[in-house]
Amino acid sequence: MIRFWFNFDFSNCNEEPPPGVRYGCGITAYSYEQAIFLLNEKVFRNQDIPNTFECIENVDISTLDQGHVIPNMKAPIFFGIWFPIGYD
Predict the structure, then answer these.
(1) What's residue 15's pLDDT?
(2) Predicted pLDDT of residue 58
(3) Is 56 domain-assigned?
(4) How many structural domains compose the chain?
(5) What is the Cα–Cα distance from 18 to 59, expressed in whole angstroms?
(6) Which one is predicted more confidently, 48 or 70?
(7) Alpha-carbon distances of 3 from 27, 29, 47, 67, 76, rounded to whole Å
(8) Is the entire prediction scored with pTM above 0.90?
(9) Alpha helices in 1-88 (DSSP H)
């Protein structure tokens, strides 16, 4: 499985982003396509994913925000969304 970290640019979005996603989103999946599917189905649901985003494949967890992301995430070794919490 692959750890993905997504950073989004919400500057041109008309809608309020889903809760917690301004910090980014962490997903463990078998492929990039599967991670995008989870973003669509579980996080953004009825919204479009912003056109401008960064995806970091095999993200080094220690590089993520130590003050908010690290203490508020699930274990990234399991399949699914591990940050933000609540998008199972």
Answers:
(1) 79
(2) 97
(3) yes
(4) 1
(5) 22
(6) 70
(7) 6, 7, 23, 20, 7
(8) yes
(9) 32-38
Average pLDDT over the chain reads 93
Query: How many of the other CB atoms lie within 10 Å of CB of 8?
Result: 21
Q: Read off the amino acid at residue 44.
A: F
Q: Which domain holds residue 32?
A: 2-13+20-83
**What is the pLDDT at residue 86?**
93
In a domain, 88, yes or no: no
- Type of residue numbered 60: D
Q: From the DSSP assignment, how many helices (H) and strands (E) are in the chain?
A: 1, 4
The Cα–Cα gap between 9 and 58 comes to 21
Separation of alpha carbons 13 and 7, rounded Å = 14
Nearest alpha-carbon partner for 83 in 1, 32, 12, 7: 7
CA dist 32 → 7, 15, 19, 61 (Å):
14, 25, 22, 18
